[in-house]
Design brief:
With 637 residues, the protein is of the alpha/beta class. The chain has 16 helices and 25 strands. Strand 9, helix 8 (249-264) and strand 10 (271-272) form a beta-alpha-beta unit. Helix 9 crosses helix 13 (485-501).
């Protein structure tokens, strides 16, 4: 299934996915409406004043829909008080009730506010993480049970003009879906489609859908497959985008942009929520920057149309086959090249920003986990740099060593390496794809001046696939005119992440403009690789944004867990505020730290609870002990 037209019209033109309009109170979502920004409160829903105040902070920051947890009937009923107080203060922003396990709470909320969100994985099904054998008859019985229990909510929404989000989460698929489809994007899609078909049968269409996951590859594939599934059944409902449990800080921002930005740059998405383990108001600038990255993309120079079937599947991750040269190519992790051509000189102090640290006492270099694989410099280095990092220089600067050539230089040089030669190419030069067919040493360094870099770069790589029998490796050169760190993160993470999620490129060639940007660009490169799930260079934290269900200070606790474990490269650790978001939501985590009561924590190994109801004062220490017991611990350097 390689045809891009199954989910988007074109991969060389930015055309918005044509969804129907859904009204949420006075706000239109989908259709010709702008992409809407939303977030979620963290206060106790029964604390009306605090919740109203947090709603106001979000609204004034630019939030267009506010979601509030309603875990039970009492909380659902109190949504009316919150709504009334907001209306008295002049705020008409629609409210959304977040429902998981309690259908009665959803039915109460649907009569009071503008939208309810239900999770099909735990709204009706009981989750025990058991594989169950179903024949067609028993499976249909389960569907009939869902329809009987779900239909009353649909009828209430119809009667009251209430919108609904059917919000599938990768980590909370039901045992029934897992038994039939496994822990897959296809399972996520079918989980939503079962509920959506009931809505359609009952002639209810005020529906929005989401396919959230912490794993960006799964998240992107699920949304694409959902569009395919809806098209087959004559549906085109709006899509709510989100990378769930993205975490905090730079990691959370980069991960959000890798997942959501990939889809937005393909024209997919009608409303977005950035899920950070921070104060919810901090999510809004990230969402605004992400959408700003879409602005004026229609005005880019025309990209040659690509009408053929794709040489890769947008619904399955498979790395593009490419030649292995030195440390680059198929079968090797994608590389990072730090381009220092903007520096007036290369010093040891500059290299410390790249985790290349010289120990004068030992006369040795210490190489950190975020050290680039290659340096490119136009200046001579007057000291020896040893270790895993190699130096690339322009052809004119040296006789021997790793070189970067222009195409014309490479055609005329007589001093080519027999191992690897870096050749720079602009994305408008399609003829270059078929050049040097008999030269297996070429690695392309691809750049684009087009405003819509993703479509432009992807188009050139597709041309390379059709014309280049040797399957040369491709590095993408990135630099930005933005001076704002957040905008830089959104730009790079969106279009580079998209190329990695589809397995199309072999590395990043980062080009900071000045000394102050070196560390930012380098950390961003490794963050994109980590968030794209193609190279792990640090501990990954799958932490949920706080909400009214959270049983401890999530930001403070995540920081404590991070301080104790951030040196454990390659491990994924889930930090979840309540049982709703754990253990299922941390499906990819090796270890989990989950709130189970006030001041009580349970620890997980994978999805299995191994230490129950620990006092929070000792829980981080016990998490470290659990990691040690399973042989995954190492001491800090």
């Amino acid at each position: 299934m390689n045809d891009h037209r199954l989910y988007i019209e074109s991969i060389t033109e930015l055309n918005r996915y044509k969804s129907r309009e859904v009204k949420v109170g006075n706000v239109g979502i989908g259709g010709d409406n702008p992409i809407r920004i939303q977030s979620m409160t963290t206060t106790d829903t029964m604390d009306t004043d605090a919740t109203v105040q947090e709603c106001i902070e979000l609204i004034e920051a630019g939030c267009e829909l506010v979601r509030i947890t309603a875990p039970g009937k009492r909380e659902a009923e109190n949504l009316l008080n919150i709504k009334n107080e907001l209306r008295k203060k002049g705020y008409n922003t629609p409210l959304v009730a977040d429902i998981h396990f309690t259908p009665v709470a959803a039915e109460v909320a649907a009569k009071l506010i503008e939208k309810v969100r239900v999770n099909p994985g735990n709204y009706i099904d009981k989750k025990k993480f058991k594989i169950i054998e179903y024949d067609d008859a028993t499976y249909q019985k389960e569907i009939d049970k869902i329809k009987k229990r779900f239909s009353p909510l649909v009828e209430i929404c119809k009667a009251h003009g209430t919108a609904m989000r059917i919000g599938t989460n990768h980590g909370s698929l039901s045992d029934r879906i897992l038994s039939k489809y496994g822990d897959t994007p296809e399972g996520m899609v079918e989980s939503a489609m079962e509920f959506l078909r009931i809505c359609k049968d009952l002639d209810y269409h005020n529906v929005i859908l989401s396919m959230k996951a912490s794993n960006t590859i799964i998240m992107v594939q699920a949304y694409r497959l959902l569009i395919v599934a809806m098209k087959k059944e004559g549906m085109n409902y709006p899509l709510h985008l989100g990378v769930t449990e993205a975490g905090d800080g730079d990691d959370g921002r980069v991960k959000s942009a890798v997942g959501m930005g990939t889809l937005l740059l393909d024209g997919i998405g009608d409303t977005i929520r950035v899920s950070l383990t921070e104060a919810p108001v901090e999510e809004i600038p990230v969402a605004k920057s992400m959408l700003k990255n879409l602005a004026n993309k229609k005005a880019y120079p025309q990209i040659e149309t690509y009408k053929q079937e794709l040489p890769y599947s947008p619904f399955r991750y498979v790395r593009r086959k490419s030649l292995q040269r030195d440390k680059i190519g198929d079968g090797l992790v994608p590389v990072v090249v730090s381009d220092l051509s903007g520096m007036s000189e290369i010093t040891r102090d500059i290299l410390r920003n790249l985790e290349l640290k010289y120990d004068a006492n030992l006369d040795k270099w210490k190489i950190g986990d975020l050290a680039p694989d290659y340096l490119f410099t136009t200046k001579a280095i007057d000291f020896e740099l040893t270790g895993m990092t190699k130096v690339i220089q322009p052809n004119a600067l040296l006789d021997d060593g790793l070189k970067l050539y222009s195409i014309e230089e490479y055609k005329t040089t007589s001093k080519k390496s027999k191992i690897i030669n870096f050749v720079s190419v602009d994305s408008t030069n399609y003829e270059a794809c078929s050049e040097f067919q008999d030269d297996p040493t070429v690695v392309w360094v691809l750049s684009s001046n087009n405003e819509n870099k993703l479509l432009d770069l992807r188009r050139w790589i597709l041309e390379l696939e059709s014309k280049n029998k040797l399957k040369h490796s491709v590095l993408v050169s990135f630099n930005s005119t933005s001076t704002h760190k957040l905008d830089l993160q959104m730009q790079a993470s969106s279009y580079l992440g998209a190329l990695f999620l589809d397995g199309l490129i072999d590395g990043i060639w980062m080009k900071p403009k000045n000394i102050t940007e070196i560390k930012i660009y380098n950390e961003l490169a490794f963050g994109i690789l980590q968030s794209s799930r193609v190279r792990s260079s640090k501990t990954e934290y799958i932490s949920c944004p706080s909400c009214g269900r959270t049983l401890f200070d999530l930001q403070e606790t995540t920081n404590k867990v991070r301080q104790a474990t951030e040196h454990l490269k390659g491990l994924k650790i889930g930090v979840m505020g309540c049982i709703v978001n754990g253990p299922g939501e941390m499906a990819d985590a090796h270890y989990g730290y989950v709130g189970t009561g006030i001041g009580k924590i349970s620890l997980y190994k994978g999805q299995e609870v191994v230490k129950r109801n620990l006092e929070s004062s000792v829980a981080v220490e016990e998490l470290v002990n659990l990691i040690k017991e399973n042989g995954d611990w190492k001491e800090k350097d």
